[in-house]
Amino acid sequence: QLWTIDEKKWKPGRVEHTVGWPLDRHTYGGSFLYHLNEGEPLVALGFVVSLDYQNPYLNPFREFQRWKHHPSVQPTLEGGTRIAYGARALNEGGFQSIPKLTFPGGLLIGCSPGLMNVPKIKGTHTAMKSGMLASEAIFSQLTNENLQSKTIGLDVQEYEENLKNSWVWKELYAVRNIRPSCHSILGVYGGMIYTGIFYWLLRGKEPWTLKHPGPDFAQLKPAKDCTPIEYPKPDGKISFDLLSSVALSGTNHEHDQPAHLTLKDDSIPVSRNLAVFDGPEQRFCPAGVYEYIPLETGEGSRLQINAQNCVHCKTCDIKDPSQNINWVVPEGGGGPAYNGM
């Protein structure tokens, strides 16, 4: 969210990060609150919830609302005005999840291959550097008079080699084990202990590389094995309901375009997602796109997809436990119109 706050509380340049609360120790996540230095009392704030969480009752949006009531956060926002809202999935697999970066006719650069420094929630610098290295490698190929390409599209493999020899690779390698270390029996606490020992003391030079347990959607447990989470009602001052927040995202899709959110099997949402996981898509979506509504017969329910609300965060594509949602690119110009974010 983007807020305007009381100028007396505004401290341009101030950066606040938290980890944990209100999440439990088995759910990785944290927050950011930045006092922007742009001539007016603006703060940007957000809450990051890792999508490998296990409890299908968890609602990332509502965790964010609850976090804002923490005594270290609420005073900053009191008397302020929420002016913008948005959501986005971050590629936080880190070093272990970087794919092959080159293919005939193209390169993966920026945020797309997942070059984010996960513990710092910071990736703009690595994204920009990858673009610089890509342009240098492409220019070198285009100006090579002896160029012999094996394919119709130019395959610039030097880009990946140059990236691996740059400070980007060294930075991501140094923090490679911080995120996977949270999968021990101690959860996030274990990750903190590991980070203190092996990153702050050894600077990530340990001779091993930990692995992720698998895809995020596969980590979800059946609803019968989990405890429902009771969330407080929004007060309309610090915390808000979902739909009024989505209205601030400026999202819009032309009503006559083909739906960009479809199902591979229409029966799966009710027969599996709702039956086994209590319909997690109605909670993990930060825009209220997925909604279970009663059938007109009065027996059972069906999944309604409000594609108009979609803010293109890609969470459903990642977290759907059945991998039954087909997310395709919508018509050009559709989607959120973030102002100032």
From TrEMBL:
ETF-QO/FixC ubiquinone-binding domain location: 2-90
Matching entries from Pfam families are given as:
ETFQO_UQ-bd, Fer4_ETF_QO
- How many cofactors are bound and how? Binds 1 [4Fe-4S] cluster.
Which of the seven top EC classes does this enzyme belong to? oxidoreductase
| Keyword line | Acetylation, Electron transport, FAD, Flavoprotein, Iron, Iron-sulfur, Membrane, Metal-binding, Mitochondrion, Mitochondrion inner membrane, Oxidoreductase, Phosphoprotein, Transit peptide, Transmembrane, Transmembrane helix, Transport, Ubiquinone
Q: Name one GO cellular component term.
A: mitochondrial inner membrane
**What residue stretches are annotated with the ETF-QO/FixX C-terminal domain?**
236-339
Q: For this protein, what is the EC number?
A: 1.5.5.1
> Per UniProt, what is one GO molecular function of this protein?
electron-transferring-flavoprotein dehydrogenase activity
Transmembrane feature ranges: 184-202
Cofactors demanded by this protein: [4Fe-4S] cluster; FAD
Quote the subcellular location field of this record: Mitochondrion inner membrane
Reaction it catalyzes: a ubiquinone + reduced [electron-transfer flavoprotein] = a ubiquinol + oxidized [electron-transfer flavoprotein] + H(+)
Oligomer and partners: Monomer.
Function statement: Accepts electrons from ETF and reduces ubiquinone.
Identify this protein by name.
Answer: Electron transfer flavoprotein-ubiquinone oxidoreductase
Q: Report the source organism.
A: Turnix velox
